[in-house]
Amino acid sequence: MTAPAVTVDPASASGDLPGADAGSAVQTRALTKRFRSGQVAVDGIDLSVPRGAVYGFLGPNGSGKTTTIRMVLGLVRPTSGTSWLLGSPEPATVLSRVGALVEGPGFHPYLTGRANLLRLDAADATADPRTAARRASEALERVGLLAAEGKPYRQYSLGMKQRLGLAAALLRPRELLVLDEPTNGLDPQGTREVRLLIRELAQAGTTVLVSSHLLGEIEQVCTHLGIMSRGRLLLQGPRSVLDQRGVTRVMVTVAPGHVATAAGVLRVLGLDVSAEDHALNAELGALEPARIPAALVHAGVDVVGFEVRRPSLEQVFVDLTGEGFDVAR
Ligand SMILES: Nc1ncnc2c1ncn2[C@@H]1O[C@H](COP(=O)(O)OP(=O)(O)OP(=O)(O)O)[C@@H](O)[C@H]1O
């Protein structure tokens, strides 16, 4: 079952967009890729990555994220539809302002990590060769690879290769970073470092488009989300859109003897409460959560615990698709 696409971004929801929206770092219009095998990997998607956003591009393995990213960067030709990168319909003209980590960057197996970076930088006509050594050192340090900079690439672990790919994307200041599954092959510590790096880069003004098939991993650093399933963009918009799509619950624990009073207070606030032992549980609805403890304390209830449980991304995905978050095909 495929749920209808839900788009909350007014720019991409508008019927006929004449060109690029100036506020978008990446934008696509009905972007579609049908492979020769007949497989429709990307099915008419309208992506909208606002400038300054950390856009989490999420979806199970095989949902079409990499193919979308490759089309946006001009590495794969779309079957139909249009895309704009930093406002340009010609990705090649703006690529020097974009750092990309996509599958299989062209690293040389017998060169060291550092030599590989310098080789890439030398091939970039817009990079200043006089500052190459310093920039390479800074990039290697940023991704935690300085200690292994002298090892040949073929001896790198998957995580080290991934870090070198990130370093290559960071060789120059970029307006936009496109990171396809940057945490692939990284251990939990490496994953945390990538999250931190994304946060730092975003704070410095870089727009980040980051894909992941692991929902929880990237979700926490994103300001915006786009959720893919079977080639379609099911949902996109600011992070807060999730809270509107699922059910938020409140859990209140009170001291013994206070349950009946607490339940009465919650009912007056309009909540449909269920109680078990000393815990009360209700759907939050449109109520401002802070009103709950305030009202309870005002009524003399001894509140032991108060928790707002927002819907998880996984739950929203399951609600939207009727499917689990695993490989679809
Ligand atoms: N060159 C190709 N020829 C035929 N089919 C392809 C090709 N590349 C990808 N596909 C198919 O297109 C679909 C989408 O693949 P894609 O790599 O874009 O997904 P993804 O969301 O990036 O997955 P992952 O998280 O595993 O990287 C998959 O079913 C895949 O098998």
Automatic annotation (TrEMBL):
Family matches, as InterPro entries: AAA+_ATPase, ABC_transporter-like_ATP-bd, ABC_transporter-like_CS, P-loop_NTPase
GO MF term list: ATP binding
Region Disordered: start-end pairs: 1-22
ABC transporter domain segment(s): 26-255
Keyword annotations of the record: ATP-binding, Nucleotide-binding, Transport
One Pfam family of this chain: ABC_tran
Family to which the UniProt record says this protein belongs: Belongs to the ABC transporter superfamily.
Protein name per UniProt: ABC transporter ATP-binding protein
Source organism phylogeny: Bacteria, Bacillati, Actinomycetota, Actinomycetes, Micrococcales
